[in-house]
Amino acid sequence: MGFCVTNVAAKAQPALPADDTRSRTERLAEAFRSVRAETERRAAPLSAEDQLVQSMPDASPTKWHRAHTTWFFEQFLLVPHVKGYQPFHPDFAFLFNSYYVTAGPRHARTHRGVVTRPSLDEVSAYRAHVDAAMLAALQSGNEALLDTLAPLIEIGVNHEQQHQELMLTDILHAFSLNPVSPAYDARWQWPASTRSGGAIELAEGIHTVGHHDDSYCFDNERPPHRALVGPVKIARDLVTNREWLAFMRDSGYTTATLWLMDGFAAATSEEWNAPGHWREIDGEWRVMTLGGLKKLDLDAPVCHVSYYEADAFARWSGKHLPTEMEWEVAARTGQLNDAFGIVWQWTRSAYSPYPGYAPVEGALGEYNGKFMVNQLVLRGSSLATPEGHSRVTYRNFFYPHHRWQFMGLRLADYRA
Ligand SMILES: [Fe+2]
């Protein structure tokens, strides 16, 4: 079955609408069912061989994503809270735990691609087993159990949506290394982008940033707090491939003075001379996409650039990357083009706890908080972000050398 990801461009709304009048059981069951179905829809175009490949330590096999998201519900909801639940298989907690130290020992992340067994069919059976147990628990009529499960289901649903995005970025990375350049979906096209030129001028002022209503968010988006922002001009448009080519032609990748020291070391050792997934064929740049190898669209937003590259580009432009607070305040005006749904946008903000940050209690406290060092925040969402999973306070984070996600940038200008 084909699947067109251009249809999943994110809209800023919570996964479980707060004004929904259906019963809590129906809402939770529907959110659970639909997220589980979306994972299967994204996996459906991929063969068993596709679903096993791990093209680098940072990327995981599709089969692993399908099993790990299932383990999450088994480990954090069914085992501790549903009486009489029988885990599907005694080895699966070891195989499919990702990084939860409090949930016990786990298989090495770097070796997920060697797990030929369990088979794909067994992973599908695992998903069905957990789905049935989850829906039975939701429909049990046990209100006390629902009180316990409801917030955990919201985390589980949002967790699986994050893995849905990774399923696409990870298989695209694998396909980009395949000499025959396979298409995930031959009908796939880049989403249309909007360009208006100009900038949003933010005068100096104190703004409330962070998540401050009752809708769902991750713990790292709270608490809301006040921040001094501006004066600064935030570009309405994303940086394009055409602009990136000008940087390349001006020796951007080899001019050391444009780069952070760690960045230049990464660019040199990785032999970067263009964004990720770009290939020069007969003097023309092509780019590997979910639709296969495509001619570079000069007016499309640049994608698959690391923080180091984005920072060097900004310096070459005589500008900067915005802070995450500047991005959020500008995005709240509703005047940023393509803030959501094409590429995540690098900010120059370190991924740190907000003042007064408190992780959720228990093992799920490992979800976000323990990663708050050495990474940078990206804002917005991408073409692979599932519908309903983006919002203006969302804080994505990656290491500065990472570039296999759908990552781009917009610029900030501090000149008067
Ligand atoms: Fe996970």
Notes on the protein architecture:
The chain is of the alpha+beta class. The chain is built from ten helices and twelve strands. The strands form four sheets. The chain has a four-stranded mixed sheet. Helix 1 packs parallel to helix 6. The longest helix has 34 residues. The protein is globular, with a radius of gyration of 22 Å. The relative contact order is 0.16. The N terminus is likely disordered. Fe (ii) ion (FE2) binds next to helix 6.
**Small ligands present:** fe (ii) ion
Indicate the overall shape.
Answer: globular
Structural class: alpha+beta
- The quaternary organization reads as single chain
For the sheet with most strands, the description reads: 4 strands, mixed
Strands ordered across the widest β-sheet: 10-9-8-11
State the end-to-end distance. 53 Å
**Which sequence of SSEs, written as H and E, runs from N to C?**
HHHHHHEEEEHHEEEHHEEEEE
Work out the helicity level: 25-40%
User: How many helical stretches?
Assistant: 10
| Amount of beta strand | 5-15%
| Nearest-integer average pLDDT | 94
What is the rounded Rg?
22 Å
**What is the number of E strands?**
12
**Uncertain regions spanning at least 5 consecutive residues:** 1-14
Layout: helices, strands, pairs:
Elements: H1 24-43, H2 48-52, H3 62-81, H4 92-96, H5 120-138, H6 143-176, E1 199-202, E2 205-209, E3 225-229, E4 232-235, H7 241-249, H8 261-269, E5 278-281, E6 284-289, E7 292-295, H9 307-316, H10 324-332, E8 344-350, E9 376-379, E10 396-398, E11 407-408, E12 412-413
Parallel strand pairs: 8-11
Antiparallel strand pairs: 1-4, 2-3, 4-12, 5-6, 6-7, 8-9, 9-10
Helix pairs in contact: 1-5, 1-6, 3-5, 3-6, 8-9
Bound molecules: fe (ii) ion.
The site of fe (ii) ion has 4 residues, from helix 6.
